[in-house]
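Known limitations

Structure tokens in this collection are predictions and should be treated as such. Users comparing against experimental data should check residue numbering before alignment. To illustrate the layout, the record for Thioredoxin peroxidase is reproduced below. The input appears on top and the generated tokens appear beneath it.
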Amino acid sequence: MALRLGDIAPNFKAETSQGPIDFHEFIGDSWTILFSHPDDYTPVCTTELSAVALSYADFQSRGVKLIGLSANNVDSHAGWIKDIDNLHPEGPKLDFPIIADESREVSTLYGMLDNLDKTNVDKKGIPFTVRTVFIIDPKKVIRLTLSYPASTGRNFPELLRVIDSLQLGDKHKITTPANWKKGDKVIVHPSVQGEQVKELFGDKVETVYPYLRFTPDPSTAQA
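Generated tokens:
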């Protein structure tokens, strides 16, 4: 059965480029992003991991752990990481683990195998993964899933934007509108009614419709 938002992220044990892990122990009490790659030494994957390495501090500042996955073994990952680091030699090095999933055990558990491109297989005919993303909260709950085709690189600033939205929504009773970014107005959650509106947001509520009420970004207001 496909994993859905609100499901507990399945646990697993695996070898990674930084040693063996138990996934739930790895998550601990942090937010975590698990993202898969079809194969080592492929052009789009190399640019993606380089981009994540360059922005890793932005994820760390939000208390987010990153862990990649690719359908190759640890030795292959080690050589590939050198290429990734050399893509931007003056920038930060890749400093998070990449799961070795040559058997596709984790990919199968998380439903990440490519069923679209029948040519996207290894020498044994086993499908590679698509570019899947899972955002998992500190309670091990899946909060976002995204799947890109193997041919399309991901937008990691969008994942930072989602993290900002989820963390803000968990702390305050708000949701975020289309194209929202940190610092923009947010939406008062529909469950907040009556006196609670003033208690939580004071007089800083702009009512467009009874069901659509804007208020300043609480994190900016408290800064």
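For this record: The CA atoms of residues 55 and 77 lie 20 Å apart. The chain has a mean pLDDT of 92. Please report discrepancies through the issue tracker.
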